[in-house]
């Protein structure tokens, strides 16, 4: 039996026991019929195509002013990430593509419209809630459709191999089960709108430094048990119409021309029937088509248009290319039909209920905020007389991550600070804040309090005000962006010094973090509470205030490990960060430059698995998150195919907990893996029984093209987090071997 906190006690009288089957049951959603009908229709269309028509769907532009003014766009194109013309004669619509997984991106205001910004990917994932991921996906997909898009470049599922990765905020988790299940749910939501979602970036796109040329070294076993498993689960659960390949190289080949990744694994081994689109500017040449790439995206960013006239000419003389070209078209058209892109006219400018959509974003923020520390000061009393809010532009808004995912509301950002680059990239890479002021939200919850604000630039002044206040709330930010990794995990701009000084002046100091991922907390011992709000989206302000004052009982759990410092990570520095200049594009400084990232160091032991293997104690473990009530997980029982356990709310408030079950040892050897989880809402004293099906891939090793389950003793434990585990329960498994 495991107790969540030492304050917890077993409640007298459990009054309800219900069996809850959590969202992840590993049932693979039915796709067979729709996919095979779509494929048959696609075959018929392809048989009617002329040679010219066969190279229409295979490449497209980025309808943005990349170098100079906006190019003349076809009548049905709208500024966004991509445009691929249709073939009206054959009833094939154009593909109108927009980023990304946090909402319809703003593309520097060129469309003169706004959209609803979800919290960052890591914030969404901290909910551990597939149903909510689905709703978020459905909402942003509906906005994409209303703005005239039929492809959403969502589904970022790369595992967080390094918390310094500039795109950590976009991705979901460091664990393949959690990442895959949540990405799959979001993709299903997006595609419920008769649009296609991608899953991306396939694969092993684990760092932004030198992203266009870094070569990832990884063994088969390590790849299949980690990043590839996340993609596999995401594809099974979400059935995305398209897979976007990545910028980086894998084992010497560019991902978008990797025979191993695209032909052998994705299409042959996994039987994927949709199409592979390139990342923007990631196509090395026409040979990529033979290696499994089906569509060249954002072609102005490549050195040439390879999949147009050049491919047509090649297909006219080379049978292998001719066959490939038919297959490329079949796959693209199958996805178009399977996801209903040919149904109903696509009209930009359809009305959007921004209020209703913002509520979805707020719900996700409510469930994704993680309470990391509470010495009893939280929740704050609404009757608090004086509150000083410091830093983080908390008077204006909440921070957003930068790059292609950046979404703006109708009025644009509350604040935009150019950070990096010139020309067009400067528009993508600036520090921006959504219009959702935590300061205003705090004042509207604590109506009678005197609420002061200091921007934090002058420490002595902030300290003086802190000393005069009952409570201090410091907002600390770590801005991160696509294209650039952070050099280390410290809070930038002297914020650590500010927090330490303020905490020394007032012991009732609460730190609210708006970060892309983990940061170091040298002041942790001296503050009363820490709330990880991530980049909390369009309603971040009210969500933060609701958690601080207890209107929302925090329930988020970390989807990645927070290390004490960088020395605990598999690599002391991100490969290349010591000799490459920061560069959004990530190109090599000279054509001969080489950069290798050796992922065999940690292999498939990403995140908490690395910490278990190396017996290190992180600052906050994967799966960790506090609540204003207490829970107890107990009664773990196992069978070959499923496991059950019970969660009880042992405190006095209603709340939600995330029950977690881990494999902890196999035949006596430490081997930690998340096997199942469930998020449950519980009234005080209520219990729920959870049943989780076991996915054997999570217990197995990948060896010589098979999943292999060694015979022997498997020990499982309940976990409040990956770092706080119950006594284990043993189960014997017989040896087994299977393909996917
Ligand atoms: C990013 C993709 C994005 C694409 C289109 C690339 O730089 O890596 O995630 O979808 O641009 O904007």
Written overview of the protein:
- The structure is a single chain.
- With 740 residues, this protein is of the alpha/beta class.
- Helix 3 (130-146) runs parallel beside helix 4 (176-191).
- It contains 17 helices and 32 strands.
- Helix 15 links the parallel strand 18 (471-478) and strand 19.
- The chain has a 6-stranded mixed beta sheet. Strands 12-20-19-18-13-17 form a 6-stranded mixed beta sheet, with helices on both faces. Strands 1-22-23-26-2 form a 5-stranded mixed beta sheet, with no helix packed on it.
- The longest helix has 20 residues, at 319-338.
- Beta-D-glucopyranose binds at residues 81, 99-100, 153, 200, 279-280, 404.
Can you tag this structure with a few keywords?
alpha/beta, binds beta-D-glucopyranose, disordered N terminus
SSE layout and pairing:
Elements: E1 2-3, E2 17-20, H1 32-47, E3 82-84, E4 95-99, H2 121-125, H3 130-146, E5 151-153, H4 176-191, E6 196-202, E7 215-217, H5 220-224, H6 227-238, E8 242-245, E9 249-250, E10 253-254, H7 259-269, E11 275-277, H8 287-290, H9 309-317, H10 319-338, H11 354-368, E12 370-374, E13 386-390, E14 398-400, E15 415-418, H12 423-428, E16 430-434, H13 438-445, E17 450-454, H14 459-467, E18 471-478, H15 495-505, E19 509-515, E20 529-532, H16 540-548, E21 596-598, H17 608-613, E22 631-638, E23 642-649, E24 655-666, E25 669-682, E26 687-693, E27 701-703, E28 706-709, E29 712-721, E30 724-725, E31 729-733, E32 736-738
Parallel strand pairs: 2-26, 4-5, 5-6, 6-8, 7-9, 7-21, 8-11, 13-17, 13-18, 18-19, 19-20
Antiparallel strand pairs: 1-22, 3-4, 9-10, 12-20, 14-16, 15-16, 22-23, 23-26, 24-25, 24-29, 27-28, 28-32, 29-30, 29-31
Helix pairs in contact: 1-10, 3-4, 3-11, 4-6, 9-10, 11-16, 13-16, 14-15
The chain binds beta-D-glucopyranose.
The site of beta-D-glucopyranose (BGC) has 8 residues, from loops.
């Amino acid at each position: 039996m495991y107790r969540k906190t030492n304050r917890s006690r077993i409640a007298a009288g459990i009054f309800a026991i219900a069996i809850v089957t959590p969202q992840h049951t590993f049932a693979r959603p039915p796709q067979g019929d729709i996919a095979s009908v779509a494929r048959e229709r696609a075959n018929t269309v392809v048989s009617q195509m002329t040679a010219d028509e066969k190279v229409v769907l295979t490449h497209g532009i980025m309808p943005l002013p990349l170098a100079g003014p906006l190019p003349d766009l076809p009548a049905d194109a709208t500024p966004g990430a991509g445009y691929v013309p249709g073939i009206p004669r054959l009833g094939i619509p154009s593909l109108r593509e927009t980023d990304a997984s946090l909402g319809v991106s703003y593309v520097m205001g060129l469309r003169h419209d706004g959209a609803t910004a979800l919290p960052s990917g890591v914030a969404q994932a901290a909910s551990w809630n597939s149903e909510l991921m689905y709703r978020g996906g459905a909402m942003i997909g509906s906005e994409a459709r209303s703005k005239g898009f039929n492809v959403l470049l969502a589904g970022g599922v790369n595992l967080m191999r390094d918390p310094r990765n500039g795109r950590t905020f976009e991705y979901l988790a460091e664990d393949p089960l959690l990442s895959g299940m949540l990405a799959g749910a979001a993709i299903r939501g997006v595609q419920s709108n008769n649009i296609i979602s991608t899953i991306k970036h396939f694969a092993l796109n684990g760092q932004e430094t030198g992203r266009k040329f870094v070569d990832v070294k990884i063994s088969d076993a390590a790849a299949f048990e980690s990043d590839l498993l996340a993609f596999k689960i995401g594809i099974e659960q979400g059935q995305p119409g398209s897979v976007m390949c990545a910028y980086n190289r894998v084992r010497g080949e560019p991902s978008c021309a990797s025979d191993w990744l695209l032909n052998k694994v994705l299409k042959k081994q996994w039987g994927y029937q949709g199409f592979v689109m390139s990342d923007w500017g990631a196509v090395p040449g026409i040979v990529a088509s033979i290696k499994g790439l089906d569509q060249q995206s954002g072609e102005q960013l490549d050195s040439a248009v390879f999949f147009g006239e050049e491919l047509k000419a090649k297909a006219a003389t080379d049978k292998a290319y001719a066959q490939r070209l038919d297959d490329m078209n079949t796959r693209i058209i199958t996805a178009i039909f399977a996801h209903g892109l040919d149904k109903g006219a696509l009209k930009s400018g359809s009305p959007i209920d921004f209020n209703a959509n913002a509520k979805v974003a707020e719900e996700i923020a409510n469930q994704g905020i993680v309470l990391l520390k509470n010495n009893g000061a939280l929740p704050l009393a609404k009757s608090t007389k004086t509150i000083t809010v410091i830093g983080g532009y908390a008077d204006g808004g909440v921070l957003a991550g930068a790059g292609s995912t950046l979404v703006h509301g109708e009025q644009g950002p509350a604040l935009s600070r150019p950070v990096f680059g010139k020309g067009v990239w400067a528009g993508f890479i600036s520090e921006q804040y959504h219009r959702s002021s935590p300061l205003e939200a705090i004042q509207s919850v604590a109506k009678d309090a005197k609420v002061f604000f200091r921007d934090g630039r002058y420490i002595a002044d902030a300290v003086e005000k802190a000393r005069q206040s009952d409570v201090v709330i410091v907002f600390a930010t770590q801005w991160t962006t696509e294209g650039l990794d952070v050099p280390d995990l410290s809070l930038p701009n002297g914020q650590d010094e500010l927090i330490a000084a303020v905490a020394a002046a007032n012991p009732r100091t609460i730190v609210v973090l708006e970060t892309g991922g983990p940061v170091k907390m040298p002041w942790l011992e001296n503050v009363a509470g820490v709330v990880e709000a991530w980049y909390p989206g369009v309603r971040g302000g009210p969500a933060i205030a609701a958690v601080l004052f207890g209107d929302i009982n925090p329930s988020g759990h970390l989807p990645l490990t927070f290390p004490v410092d960088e020395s605990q990570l598999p690599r002391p520095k991100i490969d290349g960060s010591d000799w490459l200049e920061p560069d959004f594009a990530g190109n090599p400084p000279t054509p001969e430059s080489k950069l290798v990232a050796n992922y065999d160091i940690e292999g498939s032991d990403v995140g908490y698995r690395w910490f278990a293997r190396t017996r290190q104690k992180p600052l906050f473990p994967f799966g960790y998150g506090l609540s204003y009530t207490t829970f107890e997980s107990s009664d773990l029982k196992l069978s070959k195919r499923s496991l059950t356990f019970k969660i009880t709310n042992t405190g006095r408030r209603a709340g939600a907990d995330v029950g977690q079950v881990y494999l902890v040892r196999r035949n006596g050897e430490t081997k930690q893996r998340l096997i199942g989880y469930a998020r449950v809402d519980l009234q005080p004293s209520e219990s729920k029984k959870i049943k989780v099906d076991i996915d054997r891939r999570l217990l197995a090793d990948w060896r010589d093209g098979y999943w292999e389950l060694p015979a022997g003793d498997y020990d499982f434990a309940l976990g409040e987090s990956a770092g706080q585990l119950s006594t284990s329960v043993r189960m014997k498994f017989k040896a087994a071997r299977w393909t996917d």
